[in-house]
């Protein structure tokens, strides 16, 4: 089929086939402009000779983490891990994984989708629930790596206990997906802060 | 009756892959890892080293080890029971693809059979299998991925096309998986398509043409959104300062949109017709630069003010015929009734603004109804603003979150500790004093403005008619009002610091409320002045033009003071902090104060639309300039905000404030002016009438006389619009609807409470069963 270009670049721009572009538009929350911009930024991460077939190449995690939107984010490794469909577990991302990530973080994604993926990002040990260790790691990511900006162990204990008291409805000591989505649905700021725009 | 669950140590298949690191999307790999785990552990159990393993594995958290928390409470869980725990539906939904697909399948099935409830026996549809008739072999969650996919495709095919595509879009699976499903759907729909050849072959879900058109429309809209000129600027601001400061600029953008629509309506129906047919008037005064500040002089007899507009029908073919008689000319050349057009355009622009505002308010309210319980959890889960991308800002955000969490924890600790009686009394007295001071100062400012304006009027009448002095005198009152508006909020901030409220959020609310009271009082006083014709202006002008000029001056002064505030408040303060005090701290952008300034400026525009139709254009220009000035000042001089700021809730509060006291007040002022105030005799489109509203009434009478068949229109007009009992009935209906909605919400809350209790009970059930399971295995191992 016909190919569509990103428009901003010159003759050396790589192109997405038109039917593929339409499919991406139907299956993600991104508009056509956003997909083309994503394609442009993704192909910039590749070496020059591989840019022609950017749709089928996987980019290693280290390259993805050079993007300015992810460079300083404390959850960068988790984001790559959650959205990567790599069979080898090296967290490399294909173009479709990249689009997936942008779709979830876009303006028009539903709050349900955002909370689902937020749960997966915060679940540091990938066991399907947020237990105490996950929560501790989460709070450490939020407060940063500096020594003076960490919570003391007593404060951490109090914080985690309070979080579990407020969100663990079935009292099993962990927060599962439904409980997380229930807590987050009450926060009006969540959807607007869980956004990355290219 | 129900058979007891057949619990056997069934290890699921998946022996191909081994040694892989489990990825959450790969079900097989996960079960394989458990398989390895179980083999490993069964050998250790035989060697009776179970307790040692528990200790070792608590450290190695790389492996997907379920329930280490419960581990500490129950240290001797057997591996088999742990394996069963790990494959519980509430756990697997968070981490494997098959469970997500099953859940989507159930949701789709529910969508399809929304009217009928599934019979209790058909438990195969439930995502969470009830213990009644539960059979591990027939468990749907143990079906393979391919089976689940097939079932989901089958369910999706039975949906309508729009529902199908919506379902695909909102499924939380990867894009690769969605494309596989889509391909399967198209393959299955393919043979159907040949049978139903009237259906347009667009996509696998068989979208109808209408839906495609609508989606194209949405794409166009999103294109418009992406092509906005401020997109990159807003991203820059959000990336450096986060959502809180961004909300100010988004509010500014909303105001630009509101003014744009008002401006369009007035331009098309009032300004352009009058510009094409200018009235025969005295030649205007020569243009000097001072007009831009005072709005007088050259601008007095121009399109800017109401007094310029004619009160006759423009382009009338029979201008000289007396009223009521028939004009002999056959073809009218599009006569245009100017007074009617003026009145209706102002009314319609207010109506459009009202609709847009109510829509914005309802949209932001929808996302904002939430209980205050769960503050800490919400704070932690929603704390990270992913929009912030600069390294330095990220570090600042981390520090801010740490500070806020520590403050919240301290507050929780102190809340649990009750305060002594004397402390509470002391705090009450301080609060009372602070409020008295704030209200007293607001009242004092209003009275000061009143007496000052009276003094200025007397000064003007007493002095000679030197033109420069006259113009300078005109500017003094706006200057004083803007100065008070700029100064008092800083004093209120100092007062709040002395008062020391419990939480910083309450502090912000209190500061906003005090600022609001001050601005409302000043505006009410000014409106009273204008209506009572006590505006300082020369006697040959009509009072509408005078009021319009006054409002123009107020708006210009407001803009100048916003500039000065950026200059002194931000630039100079930063230089002082840097050079003199040598600290690294920079001034912070006071969001609440700036937003209230915007609201105040917008209210001035709304108050003045009747007297000056081009005022929305002036306001739009002012807002555009303000955007760039504030943005530059922000980037150069300010630092990220350190206080907690719930951006979403604050945006809702601001848009509600814009709608309820201010827009409603402006609409009330406008209605009063139209219904009860006599227009001036010598100029303006309503000259000579008793009230402005009479032009509308006159038109209805003319219609009645010209065509006796439409007396029903006059009847409707008389009995519905002018009858107060209709308004009474309407307000009663609105109150009834609100009461009904409140009761529905209350009922929902009750149901939620009951469901939460049920979930807690289910959790207790689960704990009980896990204990029983463990004891069974322990007994078995013995």
Automatic annotation (TrEMBL), chain A:
Name of the protein: CIB1 protein
A Pfam family hit: EF-hand_7
Domain (EF-hand) ranges: 110-145, 155-190
InterPro entries linked to this entry: CIBP, EF-hand-dom_pair, EF_Hand_1_Ca_BS, EF_hand_dom
UniProt superkingdom: Eukaryota
Keyword Calcium attributed: yes
One GO MF term: magnesium ion binding
Keywords: Calcium, Magnesium, Metal-binding, Repeat
Keyword Calcium: yes
From TrEMBL, chain B:
TMC domain: residues covered: 542-648
Signal sequence, start to end: none
Main location: membrane
Membrane topology designation: Multi-pass membrane protein
Location(s) in or outside the cell: Membrane
GO cellular component annotations of the record: plasma membrane
Sample GO molecular function, one term: mechanosensitive monoatomic ion channel activity
Residue intervals passing through the bilayer: 245-272, 340-359, 425-452, 472-496, 508-531, 551-576, 653-675, 726-745
Chain positions covered by the region annotation Disordered: 1-28
A Pfam family assignment: TMC
Keywords: Membrane, Transmembrane, Transmembrane helix
Family, as annotated: Belongs to the TMC family.
Name of the featured protein: Transmembrane channel-like protein
Top-level taxonomy: Eukaryota, Metazoa, Chordata, Craniata, Vertebrata
């Amino acid at each position: 089929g016909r190919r569509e270009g990103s428009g901003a670049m010159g003759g050396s721009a790589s192109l997405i086939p038109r039917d593929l572009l339409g499919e991406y538009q139907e299956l993600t929350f991104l508009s056509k402009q956003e997909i083309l911009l994503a394609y442009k930024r993704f192909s910039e991460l590749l070496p020059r000779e591989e840019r022609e077939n950017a749709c089928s190449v996987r980019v290693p995690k280290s390259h993805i983490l050079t993007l300015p939107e992810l460079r300083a984010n404390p959850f960068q490794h988790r984001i790559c891990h959650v959205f990567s469909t790599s069979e080898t577990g090296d967290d490399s991302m294909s173009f479709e994984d990249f689009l997936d990530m942008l779709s979830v973080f876009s303006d028009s994604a539903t709050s349900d989708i955002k909370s689902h993926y937020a749960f997966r990002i915060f679940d540091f040990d990938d066991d399907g629930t947020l237990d105490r260790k996950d929560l501790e790691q989460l709070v450490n990511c939020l407060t940063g790596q500096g020594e003076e900006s960490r919570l003391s162990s007593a404060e951490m204990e109090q914080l985690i206990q309070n979080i579990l008291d407020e969100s663990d409805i079935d009292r099993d000591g962990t927060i599962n997906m439904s409980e997380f989505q229930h807590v987050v649905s009450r926060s009006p700021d969540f959807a607007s802060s869980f956004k990355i725009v290219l | 009756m129900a058979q007891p669950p057949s619990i056997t140590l069934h290890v699921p298949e998946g022996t191909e892959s081994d040694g892989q690191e489990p990825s959450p999307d790969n079900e097989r790999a996960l079960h394989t890892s458990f398989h390895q785990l179980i083999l490993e552990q069964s050998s250790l159990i035989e060697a009776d080293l179970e307790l040692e393993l528990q200790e070792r594995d608590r450290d190695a958290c790389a492996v997907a080890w379920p329930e280490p928390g419960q581990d500490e409470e129950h240290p001797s869980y057997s591996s088999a029971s742990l394996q069963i725990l790990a494959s519980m539906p509430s756990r697997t939904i968070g981490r494997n693809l098959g469970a997500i697909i099953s859940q989507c399948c159930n949701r789709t099935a529910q969508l399809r059979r929304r009217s009928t409830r599934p019979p209790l026996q058909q438990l195969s549809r439930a995502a969470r299998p009830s213990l009644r008739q539960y059979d591990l072999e027939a468990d749907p969650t143990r079906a393979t991925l391919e089976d689940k996919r097939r079932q989901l495709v089958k369910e999706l095919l039975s949906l309508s096309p729009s529902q199908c595509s919506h379902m695909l879009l909102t499924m939380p699976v990867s894009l690769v998986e969605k494309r596989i499903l889509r391909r399967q759907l198209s393959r299955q729909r393919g043979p159907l398509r040949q049978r139903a050849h009237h259906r347009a072959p667009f996509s696998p879900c068989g979208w109808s043409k209408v839906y495609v058109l609508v989606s194209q429309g949405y794409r166009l809209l999103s294109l418009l959104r992406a092509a906005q000129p401020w997109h990159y600027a807003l991203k820059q601001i959000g990336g450096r300062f986060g959502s809180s400061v961004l909300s100010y600029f988004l509010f500014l953008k909303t105001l630009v949109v509101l003014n744009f629509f008002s401006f369009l309506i007035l331009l098309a129906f009032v300004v352009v017709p009058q510009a094409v047919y200018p009235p025969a008037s005295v030649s205007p005064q020569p243009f000097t630069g001072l007009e831009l500040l005072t709005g007088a002089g050259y601008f007095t007899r121009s399109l800017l003010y109401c007094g310029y507009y004619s009160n006759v029908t423009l382009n009338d073919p029979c201008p000289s015929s007396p009223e009521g008689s028939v004009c002999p000319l056959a073809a009218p050349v599009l006569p245009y009734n100017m007074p009617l057009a003026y009145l209706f355009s102002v009314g319609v622009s207010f109506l459009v603004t009202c609709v847009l505002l109510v829509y914005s308010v309802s949209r932001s309210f929808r996302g904002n109804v939430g209980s205050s319980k769960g503050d800490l959890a919400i704070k932690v889960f929603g704390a990270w603003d992913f929009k912030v991308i600069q390294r330095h800002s990220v570090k600042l955000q981390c520090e801010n979150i740490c500070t806020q969490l520590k403050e919240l924890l301290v507050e929780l600790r102190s809340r649990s500790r009750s305060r002594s009686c004397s402390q509470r009394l002391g705090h009450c007295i301080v609060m009372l004093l602070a409020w008295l001071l704030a209200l007293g100062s607001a009242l004092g400012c209003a009275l000061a403005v009143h007496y000052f304006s009276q003094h200025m009027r007397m000064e003007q009448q007493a002095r000679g008619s030197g033109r420069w002095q006259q113009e300078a005198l005109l500017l003094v009152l706006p200057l004083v009002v803007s100065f008070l508006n700029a100064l008092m909020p800083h004093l209120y901030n100092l007062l709040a610091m002395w008062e020391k409220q419990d939480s910083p959020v309450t502090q912000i609310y209190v500061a906003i409320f005090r600022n609001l009271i001050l601005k409302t009082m000043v505006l009410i006083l000014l409106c009273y002045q204008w209506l009572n014709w006590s505006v300082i202006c020369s006697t040959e002008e009509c009072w509408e033009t005078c009021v319009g000029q006054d409002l123009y001056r107020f708006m210009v002064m407001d803009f100048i003071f916003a500039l000065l505030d950026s200059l002194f408040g931000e630039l100079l303060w930063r230089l002082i902090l840097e050079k003199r005090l040598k600290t690294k701290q920079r001034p912070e952008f006071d969001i609440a104060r700036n937003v209230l300034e915007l609201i105040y400026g917008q209210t001035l525009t709304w108050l003045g639309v009747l007297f000056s139709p081009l005022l929305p254009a002036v306001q739009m220009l002012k807002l555009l300039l303000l955007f760039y000035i504030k943005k530059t000042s922000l980037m150069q001089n300010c630092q990220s905000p350190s206080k907690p700021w719930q951006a979403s809730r604050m945006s809702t509060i601001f848009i509600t404030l814009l709608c309820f006291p201010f827009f409603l007040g402006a609409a009330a002022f406008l209605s009063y002016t139209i219904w009860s105030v006599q227009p001036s005799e010598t100029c303006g489109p309503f000259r000579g009438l008793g009230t402005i509203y009479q032009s509308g009434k006159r038109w209805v009478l003319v219609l009645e006389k010209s065509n006796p068949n439409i007396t029903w229109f006059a009847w409707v007009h008389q009995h519905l619009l002018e009858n107060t009992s209709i308004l009474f009935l309407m307000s009663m209906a609105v109150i009834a609807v609100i009461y009904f909605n409140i009761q529905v919400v209350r009922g929902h809350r009750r149901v939620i409470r009951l469901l939460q209790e049920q979930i807690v009970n289910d959790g207790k059930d689960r704990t009980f069963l896990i204990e029983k399971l463990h004891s069974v295995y322990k007994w078995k191992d013995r």
